[in-house]
Amino acid sequence: MMNQIKLVTDSAAHLSKIDLQAYGISVLNPPIIMDGKLLGYVNKISSEKFLQLFDQCSNKPIIGDVSVGEITRLYNELGADGSQILSIHLSDKLSNTYANAKTAASKSTSQVTVVNSQVTAAGLSYQVLEAAKLIAAGKSIPDILPQLTKIRNRTRIFFSVRNNQQIVNNRIIGKLRGFLGKHANTAYMIKFGDNDFDLVAHGSKDESLNEFWQTQMQAMHDECIVKLTILHSGTNARAQFLREMLNDEFPFVPISIVPTNPEMTTFIGRESTGVTYLLG
């Protein structure tokens, strides 16, 4: 009998409670910190509540790291029955969790394989769900890993940032460009690919974003899109606009709208919208 494989991932992954329970996925729970003090934990606060907190505080809350010790203990507990562990994490450009998980795996008494998804939140969920389905089908970790690479290579990620302070803080754009952009009412369209950020468009807010999507949709018509996720950090008016626009162009593609999780909110800031889609 083959050893069971258990899945571990980040709270950043957009996974439903039904999927988490059905596949027995363990989710890491990073702390929320403000002014050096612990406010709570990500898994105990809704995305909407975190957005309210983010708005109300002049000193913005940050998402702390899940410690190596905590991850090691989880790996040891999950592997105590002889199970193997597949641990899939947010891109190391966005979080320290992958690095901490690698260290924890080296210390754990369990057999652990740690994967850098090299994608953002919605893309992470694509990989985790694929892994879960393959595990349920009886596949081994060596069988699963190439499939995760294929999913990653077929994932496209874009997000628009309407308040650029967070991407300045996270060094996606320089401070001077951020300062000038803020005063010029500039919006930025950023692509995340090959595990890095690429500024692909900028200009006056709605006009530049709409022009980008008109061009991008022409390219998308040449692709086989099987899943599409729209994320927003704030009011969902822009997300609904994108959904209507994309649904008109791709009526047979399932499109979901979800508020960004705390990890992505602290990275891209408020009033931002992300579009992630998967090619078949």
Break the fold down into its secondary structure elements and pairings.
Blueprint: E1 5-9, H1 17-23, E2 26-27, E3 31-34, E4 37-41, H2 47-56, E5 62-63, H3 68-78, E6 84-89, H4 97-107, E7 111-116, H5 121-136, H6 141-153, E8 155-161, H7 165-169, H8 175-183, E9 186-193, E10 196-204, H9 205-220, E11 225-232, H10 237-249, E12 255-259, H11 262-268, E13 272-279
Helix pairs in contact: 3-4, 5-6
Description:
- This protein has 280 residues and is α/β, with parallel strands linked by helices.
- It has two domains: 5-30 and 65-153, Rossmann fold (3-Layer(aba) Sandwich); 155-279, Hypothetical Protein Tm841, Chain: A,domain 3, CATH 3.30.1180.
- It has eleven helices and 13 strands.
- The strands form three sheets. A six-stranded mixed sheet has the order 10-9-8-13-11-12, with helices on both faces. Strands 2-1-6-7 form a four-stranded parallel sheet, sandwiched between helices.
- Helix 5 (121-136) runs antiparallel to helix 6.
- The longest helix is centred in the middle third of the chain and has 16 residues, at 121-136.
- The chain is globular, with a radius of gyration of 19 Å.
- The model has no long low-confidence stretch (mean pLDDT 87).
- GO terms for molecular function: lipid binding.
- This is DegV family protein.
- InterPro entries: DegV, DegV_C, DegV_domain_contain.
- Keywords: Lipid-binding.
Q: Give the helix/strand class.
A: alpha/beta
User: In total, how many domains does the architecture comprise?
Assistant: 2
The number of helical segments is 11
Q: What oligomeric state do the depicted chains represent?
A: single chain
Shape descriptor reads globular
Number of strand segments: 13
The CATH class designation of the largest domain is Alpha Beta
Average residue-wise pLDDT: 87
N- to C-terminal separation? Answer: 33 Å
> What name does the CATH topology of the largest domain carry?
Hypothetical Protein Tm841, Chain: A,domain 3
**Could you give the order of strands across the largest sheet?**
10-9-8-13-11-12
User: Can you summarize the main beta sheet?
Assistant: 6 strands, mixed
- Using only C-alpha atoms, the radius of gyration works out to 19 Å
Low-confidence stretches: none
Proportion of residues in extended strands: 25-35%
Helix and strand string, N-terminal first? EHEEEHEHEHEHHEHHEEHEHEHE
Q: What share of residues is helical?
A: 40-55%
